[in-house]
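Chain A, query sequence.
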Amino acid sequence: MANKLLEMKNLKIYFMQDGKALKAVDDISYHVDEGETLGIVGESGCGKSVSSMAILRLLESPPAKYAGGEILFEGKDLLKISNDEMRAIRGNEISVIFQEPMTSLNPIKKVGDQIAEAMILHQGLNKREAKVEVIELLNLVRIPNAERIVDEYPFTLSGGMCQRCMIALALACKPKLLIADEPTTALDVTIQAQVLQLMNELKSSLNASIIFITHDLGVIAEMADRVMVMYAGKVCEVASVVDIFENPKHPYTIGLIRSKPDMATEAERLEVIPGNVPDLNDKPGGCPFHPRCEKAGPRCAGEFPPEMMISEGHRVACYLYLEGGVGNDE
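Chain A, predicted structure.
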């Protein structure tokens, strides 16, 4: 049985606005095993990035408020450690690849200096030693002419090259956990495929764990071992990548999969999920997906459904699978 590297328990993150708590992440729990890739999928605004940025306490507080729960990394609660302890973990044991490399890299600092900074801070290398390591990293992420690129500025590089530099930066200290926040969104299809292949290869060589955040189910199918589906700050379904695609249970998961283009069918139009993700100011009670769900019943508007274990490792929060179904409780 794999060891849990990260475990999130009942995490609640609210944003305070005019004295009102907007529940961006509402009592979610999940774990990431050593050497595993967990894919987190859902529409924009469902809480994917907020929950993941909370791991490194990157949310500005206020307005963000950590309202409850635990984030255990190797048994240590990251929400309770000091700022100095947190700084020692950021970029060293847990790293992030942000979704827009052109804005995540400092345009007025050389690429090599930005990557070397983490090595100097966390590994005690001097500038000369760090530059040698940076060049090796740039070669590792398949950047040609690494000896030249190390002294270039980000604005002189393409989006694909910048993203590879971001991956090198995230891997500089060989972290145990890598958070990839939609790292291929800004890339064209060819470069996207190369970056995904590179990340899989680096994961295997470093035995790192990855939290891969995306709205693209095609990327999830290629990258993830397990998948967590989120909607409006809640976890709807968690299962292996095979179960998610071959045996989805939650109506939202089914809707996402049906909306994905399928070259094997001759459908002229994609299926769509009616409506939109609710605004945090006006989130419905009960299961937040029920206003958009074709299978919703009176029970769905009451309380959020408890989780149901469908099979080993496959859990879903939906009244369809609980005694009494979606009708009224008697």
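The chain has a mean pLDDT of 88. Residues 32 and 289 are 26 Å apart (CA to CA).
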